[in-house]
Fold:
Amino acid sequence: MERKINICRPGFGASCALCCGSHNYLSNRGDMEVMFSQRRSLVGRFCSGGEHVMQNQQALFTLQRQLEDRSLPCHLEDAIRCPFVGFVDNEEKQLGCLIYGEGGSDPRVLHMSTICGTFSCLSREILSDEEILFAARLTGDWYYYSLLINDITMLRELISRYTSPEHVPGDVRAQAQAALKEKLFTPID
Structure:
């Protein structure tokens, strides 16, 4: 499917890093937001100074250990929770990769190709740009947007009932958020 919208950051304050484990923490949303903001600050401090330390594999591993040491307890031990996920924009709370880069010998490229490059996003493959924008406009954040685009059935049900996100009543929105949050921490049999 040819896509014009970036499903990870479609605008309207929405962003997603679920594939990187953004929601795999036994913590509330507020604590996760503090962690994501602190990660941005730590990466910024780590990368400041004359030489760009992200070009060095050992420096990247040191940064990874520091971020992991400051991470919240995880929800599922064997599921991904990348320590490089954080707010790429603290003011708008846009989730993304704090080390994303391009270039031949850059160790970030190795990390991206071995870890991130193996993930397949069903939502990216199935959802239309219109469905993505509906979810982005409805939620307007990183937390519920990530969950809604990955619950394709719920998203499509909302779209079939309401012509635009602005027409979704507050109580229906609240019920959808509660259901998404409950599904997040419900074990899959």
User: Anything to note?
Assistant: Helices lie at 29-47, 57-69, 107-114, 122-126, 129-139, 143-149, 152-161, 170-184. The longest strand covers residues 85-89. The mean pLDDT is 85. Residues 111 and 138 are 33 Å apart (CA to CA).
